[in-house]
Write a structure and sequence with these properties.
It is a single chain. The protein is an alpha/beta fold and 206 residues long. The protein has one domain (15-205). It is 35% helix and 13% strand. It is built from eight helices and five strands. It has helices spanning 34-39, 59-72, 95-103, 120-124, 137-144, 158-162, 166-182, 198-205, and strands at 22-27, 47-51, 82-88, 110-116, 195-196. It has a five-stranded mixed sheet with strand order 2-1-3-4-5, sandwiched between helices. Helix 1 links the parallel strand 1 (22-27) and strand 2 (47-51). Helix 2 (59-72) packs parallel to helix 3. The longest helix has 17 residues, at 166-182. It starts with 21 loop residues before the first strand and ends with a helix.
């Protein structure tokens, strides 16, 4: 892997190879590369984005993997390095307990960011504000295809297709959050729908 290339971790980063940029270590669910294809475009002079190895979908296992690889790479809060676990609830009620347990492992510099039911809520928010309730992530993707006809879970060009509308997405996600709160829904849960915390990640990166 070339120096500075975004990719998966292969070895511990030692002091001799320490880059001036801060590192953001991300972990995503399973073999899904949607978030990877999206966030690799945010690399900047301030942050280098690296994606952790792992194929888990359990938020607790993902967080443990993230913490382990954060430490193995020699990342530190003093250097401003961050760890991010990106979680989809997928309308699965059992994930509430998993998310709650994973939260116990979080800190100021290693956190999980939840989308209910899925990451595509963030993408959809580039095009519309809707408080529609979903029964599955498939329904969200079907709705998103009204705007991105050729969208698929591993869309390689999803960032290019949506980047111009990021300000709109930020506004719409904030309204979704306020809507869920007004209904008494608890953040970071399956019922907190539709919502996504991806806006918080994007705000850090831009």
């Amino acid at each position: 892997m070339a120096s500075g290339e975004i990719g998966y971790i292969s070895k511990k980063r030692n002091s001799g190879s320490r880059k001036a940029r801060k590192i953001i270590l991300m972990i995503t669910e399973g073999n899904n590369r949607t978030e990877t294809n999206y966030f690799k475009n945010f690399e900047s002079s301030e942050y280098r984005i690296v994606f952790a190895r792992g194929n888990d979908t359990d938020p607790v296992k993902m967080m443990k993997t993230l913490l382990s690889q954060y430490e193995a790479m020699g990342l530190t809060s003093e250097d401003g390095d961050l760890g991010m676990s990106l979680i989809d609830t997928d309308c699965e009620s059992y994930k509430d307990n998993q998310i709650k347990e994973a939260d116990k492992l979080c800190s100021d510099i290693v956190r999980q960011y939840v989308s209910s039911p899925c990451f595509e809520i963030w993408l959809l928010s580039h095009f519309e504000y809707s408080t529609r309730q979903y029964n599955s992530s498939v329904e969200v993707i079907r709705n998103l295809k009204n705007y991105i006809k050729d969208y698929s879970k591993n869309d390689e060009y999803v960032y290019e297709k949506t980047k111009a509308l990021i300000p709109t997405a930020l506004e719409n996600v904030e309204k979704l959050n306020n809507h869920c709160i007004s209904l008494g829904k608890k953040p970071h849960t399956v019922e907190y729908m539709p919502s996504t915390e991806i806006d918080s990640v994007v705000k850090i990166l831009i």
